[in-house]
Amino acid sequence: MSLYVSIKKTLNEFELDINLAVGKSSVGILGTSGSGKSMTLKCIAGLETPDSGLILINGKVVFSSERNINVPPQERNVGYLFQNYALFPNMTVLENITIGLKLPKQERIRIALEKIEAFGLGGLENVYPDRLSGGQQQRAALARILVKKPEILMLDEPFSALDSSLKWQLEQEAINTIDHYDATSLFVSHSRDEVYRICSNIAVVSKGKVDSFGEKKEIFENPKTVSSAKLTGCKNISKAKKIDSKTIMCVDWGINLAIDNSVLEDLNYIGIRAHFFEVAFCERTNSFEIEIRKIIEAPFTITILFNFKNNNTSIWWEINKADWEKISKESLPNYLSVSPGKVLKLKEEF
Amino acid sequence: MAGENIMDYTPLLISFRIALAATVITFFLGIYSARLMVNSRSKWKGLIDGILTLPLVLPPTVIGLLLLIVFGKNGFIGDFLLNFNIRVVFSVSGAVIAAAVVAYPLMYRTTKGAFEQIDMNLVYAARTLGLSEHKIFWKIIIPLSLPNIRAGTILAFSRALGEFGATIIIAGNIPNKTQTISLLIYTAIAGGDMELAVRWVGIIIVISLLSVFSVNMFTPAKSGVGRSV
Question: Chain A: nearest CA to B145, how far in angstroms?
Fold first, then answer.
């Protein structure tokens, strides 16, 4: 159970150049819109043709420019869940599920009805998709895909168009399905939270390339590149210059930062996550005088926009509301610090 | 021709027969060419689309003349058909060809519009589910395009029924043979028989209104059909 992708395709704005080897696990593909995530899935499914490269699904060659192999999507047996679920509006739930099955009619209906039951759609066999709720549509689409026992499962931003209450419910259902379906699954999203909740491994895709790939904790706690840091939610990123083995200069912010382990030679950016700042009451390691520009209130968190003294660049600081109320009771903080271990050491992407 | 008080309905029959035959031709040609054009990736696509739409914007007399050049006894198709003793000029088949050519772009464009509106994700999903291109066309694309195909058919039929300019040039105005309602009205006015002309005008208005109503009936006003969910 595995997937191997090594493809190139020239697109309008950049060249897609994806290298990815995935075992039997769920991999989240995280990237901004237009970074080439969906195009990658379409190439794997055979809906788009790469210019060159090789794609193996469970050891079978489905695309090879060298050997002139391009298996049509119909024969790749890839499960593809689209954002709008793509249920055929002119067919009932039952017809939607049976149409992909190549079996005698009786057998088709029996298997489809089993799946309908398993996905909690009993009683809706003869209903058309526009009469289904969002959750039922997702389940029908998943049932339609899984009834074919696909070799791999690919989900293309299935939750990005939903409102948040429904999103949570559908997400949990999808996680359940992915977990129960014992195969390679790819989950494409631009939401770092979604990817983190759903997948065990993450590939960060930026401008058509896999920027970093690994265990999700590692990617989130220790991103190595500027785009990985941004996509995992790091709001504050500055150009940086090494001063000595334990100190770097943040060019955009006009400060020097101490970091814990020695500075990598090719480091040229640093990042500080918005919630890594702490209030400091006097000068100490990595504490800096700040000027608060703006306080933005959300239901449970406070976001503060500030700049370091004698510098104009805005920096984000996030804190939960209860803590903020404690801190700001007397006066607004003048000093913030960041622990040397929390500074992200980054490389610029090329 | 019509007698004193008795209405001769032959022109109505001729009109209907010609329009029906022309509609059948445009129906298949229109759907087929729309499918080819939607799937085509040729760089000449724009030009071909323009040519296929041309009969909609050209004056019918120009179309008539062009047909005469092609189907006349000196035209290359006309000359070929004469070998089999088939004469297009001044015959019913000429009238059918004229009506079909003029009505064709309406069928072609409405069908093509429907094909283009179909959510590509439906086609993609169908492919990953293993449906052949043939099955995708007949089980998904055609059913979802049905309202537009119906509307296109009715529009094409109405256009064919009212055809005048191209028909009079290639098929002539032969009573009881190629004289359709439009041609009869023209003849009646030219001959000063206003009463006859007005009577036929009334009939053609009723028929046209009926087709407009049926087009509106078949064109989806709400989003339910023909869209993805």
Answer: 10
